[in-house]
Amino acid sequence: MSNAAVTAATSSRAADAGKSALARLGEAFVGRLVIIIPYLWLVFFFLIPFVIVFKISLSQTAIAMPPYTPVLGFGDGLSGFFAQLKQLSVDNYTWLTQDALYVNAYVTSVIVAAISTVLTLLVGYPIAYGMARAPAMLRPTLLMLVILPFWTSFLIRVYAWIGILKPEGLLNQLLLATGVISQPLIILNTYTAIFIGIVYSYLPFMVLPLYSALEKMDYSLIEAAKDLGCPPTSAFWKITFPLSLPGVIAGCLLVFIPAVGEFVIPDLLGGSQTLMIGKTLWNEFFANRDWPVSSAVAVILLLLLIVPIMLFQRAQARAQEQDR
Amino acid sequence: MNATWSRFNITSIVLGFAFLYLPIVLLVVFSFNESKLVTVWGGFSTKWYVSLFHNQGLMDATWVTARVAVISATVATVLGTLAALALTRYTRFKGRMLFSGMVFAPLVMPEVITGLSLLLLFVAVGLDRGFLTVTLAHITLTMCFVAVVVQSRLITFDRSLEEAAMDLGAPPVKTFFQITLPVIMPAIVSGWMLAFTLSLDDLVIASFTSGPGATTLPMKIYSQVRLGVTPEINAACTILIAVVAVGVIIASLANKRREVQRQRDEQAAQRG
């Protein structure tokens, strides 16, 4: 037995309060590590990157190209990159506000995300409600079935819709064959396709919080309302919906926030005619290779989303308190 | 009245699940299509699967993706579990607000922002873009999802078990590894699975942070999809779906059994 171990053993025996000083010290140290390790990781890989984005978005000259440019795959694009930097004599933000393209992209993104969120709520609510009212034995299976598509690739699920929505796609084939339409519908590469894509991809995010709110609900309240002669519709609006409001808010935020900055859906389903900010940022970065402008786009996008994100965090914290 | 309500409920569930699953089913069906046209049925064939395995680029990308996913999910599970412990066990420490903000924000943060900011960090510290940077980026993203999953288990955890162990003289570290960890293991396993599939799935963050030689499968699929829909991509997607579906089903069955066992143990421990 080493000296330290002997000391530890004696002191632990000597301690009368059940916990030795050493154990308490050890606990404090381990406790601090539990906080420090993930904390530092997130500060370094989440917080500091935002500071860098902000800095680069402000000053064009501050971005000296790092020495490993060839590895970046820019090749001869480097000189063009520098030329672009020098041309940007005005502040990136004035540039963004003056160019109608960016303003339009921001406004369109928020509108598209808002409409999609409402549509997702309309589609998701009946599903969540049906699940919450299903026999208790069936519920875990239904829950599993809602979560399962979430595990399969987002990219694949979006891709699957291309084959359905194209002019010669499966939906048009079906509608033409049944005689509902005589001309193929143009859905792919329109905002309609983006709506469908967002509703489809984000549906589990809406259904899950709704379901957990509806499942907790006390249905004897509805029965009481019915007994007192309240019609089902107004019972729904006066009891069920208000009680499910935390789920509605959580679900809407979970859909709205990522949908504003969505890239894959507008790019694959929206085509070149549709304008959304996630796609604009991507193009600024990958096609135009304009890092300062894409940073400025990201900063403004973040500012737009900061209020919904804070709301989301408050809702999370509240839900956590309730579970405790 | 009741009957119509339940009919309405069943209809909405059936329609909802049809909406969720039909596109995936169609994608799988058309991966077995003889015809090169994805939307016209030309008879059953597995030739796209055969040509898939001769596509070296796709195979390399799969290998890269699998390695990134395993490494990043494993590290993210450790970090995410620590973060969950910090959030549930230490209700008061300096900067807790900031910490919980940093854990929850990445869940909803648009991927383009996360991707761009991480890339600029890697450039600023002079790290070459490639395998390492994608892995680091995925750890950062997925550890937050792990933290949320593990945290929800820790909240319902019965702490009297830990107290009992400590009262009997077990040091905190030992208590953690012998009592706490086994009990929250199912949550940790599903956290790992979630991290693994998120990493497997990610296109946007990988595109920003990856470099030459570290093209991931979603990046490969995306670049081919942009050129047009092909049955070969359908076949690749089908294999991915199959792998994930089988994994999820096995894990959830195992999880369920373990959960039941743990609950029984917990109850037995309390009674005994």
State the main characteristics.
heterodimer; A: 324 residues; mainly alpha; 77% helix; disordered N terminus; B: 272 residues; MetI-like fold
Mind explaining what this structure looks like?
The complex is a heterodimer of chains A (324) and B (272). By secondary structure, chain A is an all-alpha fold. Chain A has 16 helices and no strands. Chain A has helices spanning 3-14, 21-58, 69-72, 77-87, 92-98, 100-133, 139-151, 154-165, 170-177, 191-216, 220-227, 232-243, 245-260, 264-268, 277-286, 291-323. In chain B, 80% of the residues lie in helices and 0% in strands. The model of chain B has no long low-confidence stretch (mean pLDDT 85). The interface between A and B is large, with 103 and 95 residues.
Percent helix range of chain A: over 70%
Oligomer: heterodimer
* Spans where pLDDT lies below 50 across 5 or more residues of chain A: 1-17, 61-77
Treating each run of at least 4 consecutive H or I residues as one helix, how many helices of chain B?
Answer: 11
Summarize the structure.
Chain A has 324 residues and is mainly alpha-helical. Chain A has 16 helices and no strands. Chain A has helices spanning 3-14, 21-58, 69-72, 77-87, 92-98, 100-133, 139-151, 154-165, 170-177, 191-216, 220-227, 232-243, 245-260, 264-268, 277-286, 291-323.
Helices and strands in order, then pairings?
The complex is a heterodimer of chains A (324) and B (272).
Chain A: H1 3-14, H2 21-58, H3 69-72, H4 77-87, H5 92-98, H6 100-133, H7 139-151, H8 154-165, H9 170-177, H10 191-216, H11 220-227, H12 232-243, H13 245-260, H14 264-268, H15 277-286, H16 291-323
Helix pairs in contact in A: 2-16, 6-10, 6-13, 7-10, 8-10, 10-13, 11-12, 13-16, 15-16
Chain B: H1 2-30, H2 47-53, H3 56-89, H4 96-108, H5 111-124, H6 131-155, H7 160-167, H8 172-201, H9 204-209, H10 217-227, H11 231-271
Helix pairs in contact in B: 2-11, 3-6, 3-8, 3-10, 4-6, 6-8, 7-8, 8-11
